[in-house]
Amino acid sequence: MNALKTTLLLGLLSCLLILAGGAIGGKSGMTVALVMAGVMNFVSYWFSDRIVLAMYGARQVTEADSPEFYGLVRQLAIQGGLPMPKVYLMESDTPNAFATGRNPEHPAVAATTGILRILSREELMGVMAHELSHVKHRDILISSIAATIAGAITYLAHMAQFAAMFGAGRDSDDERGGGFGMILMAILAPIAAMLIQMAISRSREFGADAGGAELSGNPLYLAGALRKLEMANQQIPMHANPATAHMFIVNPLSGSAMMALFSTHPPLEERVKRLEEMTYAPR
After folding, report:
1. Measured between alpha carbons, how far is residue 161 from residues 120, 147, 167, 169 in Å?
2. pTM reported for the whole predicted model
């Protein structure tokens, strides 16, 4: 159901992108929107991992640098039948983690130094199992595509705003978008894109929680970690780019009430509840 839901939501995002292009430039605008999405997805697929790792100053570590953390990731990768990912550390007191990489054959996981300090080995195992579950199910690629299309829609909406200000879109022929449609698209498209992207991200988080619980062997490992991480992120919010917030295991922007309202992550209580239900469900 999650896979079907994600496919439908990605389809809605794509349709919204085409409509946004059409509102600005008619049929020509639709073509430009599709080309733009293609270019942005190409860049996202090949370079998004390097960009986000550099953005947070992540440094690659070896087993000699961090034997316990590296060994834990290797153990989980073997259990999950995955290639050994590149392992990165970020110097930050805020405990958090994310996975990246264009496919399961080129994975990378990153964790902050703060998360290594506050979590037990079992809790850290639950977190990294969650991240490797993202890798295994290609969630990184899905979320990157969703973020890229949503970004393209927002960009087109800004173009529509400027075009409307200077009187573009008033011609009635087929090759021009209507002025009213342009204004409406400029206002509604970014909101719709954000809501769809959030729905995709939340759906994938639930899936990664379940997959991580199975990989680690105990759903309570991750449930306990989530409680600690949520509390710590409220006390020490991370200075994160909103465009990358969906990548982290807990929302790094949760210190802001407005950001929490439009969070890319499901409510913590619901995530913990589902994990506990996995623990007590009959097998």
Report:
1. 51, 21, 10, 11
2. 0.77
Q: List the structure tokens of 133.
A: 């579950």
Strand partners for 89: 59, 111
Q: In what order do the strands lie in the sheet with 108-112?
A: 59-61, 86-90, 108-112, 97-100
Annotated catalytic residues are 131
Residue linked to tokens 């809790």: 123
User: What does the pLDDT look like over 100-158, one tens digit per residue?
Assistant: 987 888 899 999 999 999 999 999 999 999 999 999 988 877 776 776 677 777 777 77
Q: Are strands 108-112 and 86-90 parallel, antiparallel or unpaired?
A: parallel
Q: How far is CA 14 from CA 21, 108, 235, 262, in A?
A: 11, 28, 38, 21
In this structure, the number of other CB atoms found within 10 A of the CB of residue 121 comes to 11
